[in-house]
Structure formats: C-alpha cells, structure tokens
C-alpha cells in the first residue's frame, strides 16, 4: 500500500550545518524496544511512547532497524514491500506519528534501507518465479543456469554469509543468488529498473519526513563482472578482511553518487550512513567522499580489544582515513549483529564479536563503562545500541528452542547467536516483561533484568544509565567535544591512553591495576571513582576520566 502523508518538519538547528558530524545516534531494534499493543512484540507505537526517554537521555537522532512489510525470515531484513509497514509493527500512520513526535522533541529519524536483496515474497521475485526463464523480472535478480551435466551444480562457489551455498535452485532448473538466506534473493544492480525503484523508494520516505537512511550491506550491491569463483571455503572468515568478488566493488560508488543528489534536493540536511564491511578503513572512506554518503560505520573500531595500543592505532587510522574526504569518523561499540560490549569485554580478547560465554560480568561492565566514555570523547559521531546505556549484558543462555536467528539453524556461516543482544530491554523493576509491554516478551528475559531496568537506575548516581546521561550532557555542552578531525596524544604510562582536545583531556586506563598520573585538570566525569592525592590522580583499573583543562 502506498499512502501519501504531509511530511512533518525536521528539527531546526539555526545556522549550524552538518549535524551528523557530531551526532549521537541511538539504534532502536523495534521488536525489542517497547511493545505498544501488548502482543509481546515491540512496535512503532511502543517506540513513539518512549521518545521522551530518548530525548532525556540526550541523543540527537534515532535509527530504526527495519519495520517494512516482511515475512520476517531475517528479522525484517527480508523486505516484501518497501513502502508499507509490517502489521506486527503498525501502519504508515503510526510511522508518520512517530516521525512527527520525534521532530517536535528535536530528534531526527533515520530508517534502515535494505537495497542488496529483497524478500522472496517481494512481488518482483514472485513474478520472476512464475514467469520462468527469460522473464524480464529475472533480470532484476541474479538468475543463472547451473554447472554440471544437467545444471545440478551452483553457478559458482560463492558461500552464503549465513552458511551453505549462496545459490538456490528453482523448480525450472535455474539458480538464484542470495548472499544471505535463501529467502533473501540479491538484486541485480546492473539492471536499470532496480536503480529506478530505489530512487523512488528514497523519495517516498524523504517525503514522509525521515532525516536519513542507514544503508544495509552498502558494500554488496555490485558484484564482479561474470560472477567469478572465489576459491576455497570458509569464505565468511574473509568478510571485512580480504577482497571478495561480491563485496566492496568499485561500482557501488556510482549508485551512492546518484543517491546523494536526491538527498541534497531535500531541506534540513538529510543523510545516508553506510554499513560497509571493507578490508581497510581507507576503503571505508571511499563511501563517504563529498559526493557520496555522509557517514560509514567504523567496524574496525567495534572489533578492537580493550587495549591501549590497539585502540590508539585504530583511532589514528580512522581519523587519518576520514580527513582527506572531509567526513566525520564514527565510533560504535555494539549493535544488533554483535555480542554486547559489556559481554565481549567480560571475556578474553581474541574471541571475535559473537560470543556465547557470559565471562566476568563485573569486569565486563567496568570496561564497558570506560569504553563508552572513551568513545564519546573522540572527534566525530557516536552510535549507541538500545540497552547499552543500562549496561545490559548479552543473554548467553537462551534455550535453543527459543532462538530465531536464521544463521543459528544452519550448519555453517555465522555462529547464529545474535538473539542474545536482541532480548527486549527492561523498563521497570517488576512486571511480566519488566515494562516492555503487557503481553510478555518474544524472547525470554533474564531474572536480573528488573535490577538493570530504567526505573531501577534512574536517579542512582552510580548507575550506568546516569553515567550515559551525564556523559551526553557534558559532550553536548563542552566546546572541545563533538565534531573534529584530530586528537593530541599526551605522554602516558603503558596501558593508558591520554589525549587533549580544546580545553579537555581524556585519560583511559585499560590495565587491570591502579595507575598514578599527574593531575590533568578538574574532573568532569569518571567511569569509576578517582582518588586525587596532592597533584596526582589515581586511575582505577579499567577506568576512563574526563578532565577540564
């Protein structure tokens, strides 16, 4: 269904331009944020009811994971209709009301866009199957004859990110490409009809009033000519580490130049953000050249261990890569696809970003709090994943029978433990779903959730929630924080990061022991209690401190 609604006005920022250069953007995973109708599944009505909380938290924009009409084979990243809301989340009128309310609160709205693939229930794909080989609709996807004497082998050796071959054979003998689940056939972006359709989709949502798009699998739209074999197996291990014929092809950039032209036609600085897994941060910078997208996720930073030397190296390389293209660096610690950082940091380094062990909860939370203050002190834009402001750990002990991550049910590919970071977040100390909604929760919540809820932490000066609120308030008010292109590194003991910005110093002790340093200035905020003796500051283990100088 297509419904035209008058676009609500975006937040104004006076003479300030480039709001995305220092924005703090909060990711909402709608099915797990708040349930407005009591069916156990989060929805747009629930998100709308909690917008005042996000305003009070101090974020600038809200990024919504997919809410489009979808069979939900991959939690909405299999889109059947890009101009309709899935009934489990609401209606277009609900989306319109959410956008209007957000703008009245001074919040911007960014929506997920999924251009690499559709659902197998998309009308184009259903017609392609019905019409058979030679159908013009098949040219909008990657249909190919198979190899082997009778076409019984896939057209090439590409593997799905979710495990198994990246090809599925149809009843008429042809194969179609899906880099993710078989229910997610890849679009063929060499076909002009695909490009035309997505330009129309962009305009539809811009006319609705959204302030930007997070572009899912931005690196995957264009495939190497001829779809050449990659060679070898365990191809998912190469993701983000090596050149691949189906990812990060140079042809994607022409698509994003076209999109930038559309974005620039609209008032109030509409933006697009690339989810681009690339081998190097320099390759990532290609997506944010002045005539392309505005931001790109910094996955190199997300995957960095809690180690001073490693963090400094990725901070330096990130800032250096963005500087020539005049784009802001972005910083992120958690999202809906990786284990929450409070749990990653609770485990030994080197285990990757999808973990199934709880680790040392106290250690993980202490490091997570310190890592957050470090991230928010860096120049550029920062992303917060829902619930991290509560210090939520991953739920690592979900029973197999309740899991819904599609890759969990495959023999290879990703570990399939993303459900642990998608458990609905707690709002109240008590209740059947700790305030998530009146009808339970689509994934079971731990008994500890009440003590970690918004209600339990509000007003407690030592809570993680109040640390986030304070940090975002200081970041917003201090002239030395937010946008920027560089930091000045200061001499510091081994295992300690120390850098200066205008009127501001950040020190982060990544070691497991107390470290004494000369007092940098007046304490603004600390992730743990800091002792000051004479002219020396005693930094506790795994602690970040902000100083005014």
From TrEMBL:
Domain of life of the organism encoding this protein: Bacteria
UniProt cross-references to SMART domains, sorted A to Z: Aamy (SM00642)
InterPro entries: GH, GH13_cat_dom, O16G_dom_2
One Gene Ontology term of the molecular function aspect: alpha-amylase activity
Matching CDD domains: AmyAc_OligoGlu_TS (cd11332)
Stated family: Belongs to the glycosyl hydrolase 13 family.
Listed name of the protein: Alpha-glucosidase
Organism for this UniProt entry: Streptomyces pristinaespiralis
């Amino acid at each position: 269904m297509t419904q035209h609604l008058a676009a609500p006005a975006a937040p104004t920022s006076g003479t300030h331009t480039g709001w995305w250069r220092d924005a703090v953007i909060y990711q909402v995973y709608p099915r797990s944020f708040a349930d407005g109708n009591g069916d156990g599944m989060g929805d747009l009505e629930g998100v709308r009811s909690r917008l005042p909380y996000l305003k009070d938290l101090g974020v600038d924009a809200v990024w919504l994971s997919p809410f489009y009409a979808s069979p939900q084979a991959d939690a909405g990243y299999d889109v059947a209709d890009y101009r309709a809301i899935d009934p489990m989340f609401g209606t277009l009128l609900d989306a319109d009301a959410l956008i209007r309310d957000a703008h009245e609160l001074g919040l911007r709205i960014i929506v997920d866009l999924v251009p690499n693939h559709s659902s197998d229930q998309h009308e184009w794909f259903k017609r392609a199957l019905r019409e058979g080989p030679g159908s013009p609709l098949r040219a909008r996807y990657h249909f190919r004859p198979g190899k082997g004497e009778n076409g019984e082998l896939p057209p090439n050796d590409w593997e799905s990110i979710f495990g198994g071959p990246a090809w599925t054979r149809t009843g008429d003998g042809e194969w179609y490409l899906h880099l993710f689940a078989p229910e997610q056939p890849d679009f063929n972006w060499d076909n002009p009809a695909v490009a035309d359709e997505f330009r129309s989709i962009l305009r539809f949502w811009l006319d609705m009033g959204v302030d930007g798009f997070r572009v899912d699998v931005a690196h995957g739209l264009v495939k190497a000519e001829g779809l050449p074999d990659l060679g070898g197996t365990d191809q998912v291990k190469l993701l983000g580490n090596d050149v691949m014929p189906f990812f990060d092809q140079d042809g994607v950039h022409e698509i994003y130049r076209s999109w930038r032209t559309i974005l620039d036609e609209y008032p109030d600085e509409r933006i697009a953000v690339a989810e681009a897994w690339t081998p190097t941060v320099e390759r990532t910078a290609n997506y944010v050249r002045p005539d392309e997208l505005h931001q790109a996720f910094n996955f190199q930073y997300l995957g960095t261990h809690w180690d001073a030397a490693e963090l400094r190296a990725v901070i330096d390389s990130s800032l250096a890569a963005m500087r020539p293209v005049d784009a802001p660096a972005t910083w992120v610690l958690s999202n809906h696809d990786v284990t929450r950082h409070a749990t990653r940091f609770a485990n030994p380094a080197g285990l990757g970003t999808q973990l199934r062990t709880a680790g040392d909860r106290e250690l993980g939370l202490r490091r997570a709090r310190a890592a957050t203050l470090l991230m928010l002190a860096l120049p550029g834009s920062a992303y917060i994943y829902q619930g991290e402001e509560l210090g939520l750990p991953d739920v690592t002990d979900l029973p197999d029978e309740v899991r819904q991550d599609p890759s969990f049910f495959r023999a290879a590919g990703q570990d399939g433990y993303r459900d642990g970071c998608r458990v609905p977040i707690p709002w109240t100390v008590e209740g059947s779903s700790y305030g998530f909604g009146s009808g339970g929760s689509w994934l079971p919540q731990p008994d500890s959730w009440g003590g970690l809820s918004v209600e339990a932490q509000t007003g407690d000066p030592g809570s993680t929630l109040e640390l986030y609120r304070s940090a975002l308030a200081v970041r917003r008010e201090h002239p030395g924080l937010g946008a920027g292109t560089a930091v000045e590194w200061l001499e510091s003991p081994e295992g300690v990061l120390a850098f200066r910005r205008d009127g501001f110093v950040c020190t982060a002790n990544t070691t497991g022991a107390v470290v004494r340093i000369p007092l940098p200035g007046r304490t603004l905020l600390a992730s743990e209690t800091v002792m000051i003796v004479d002219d020396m500051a005693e930094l506790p283990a795994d602690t970040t401190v902000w100083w005014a100088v």
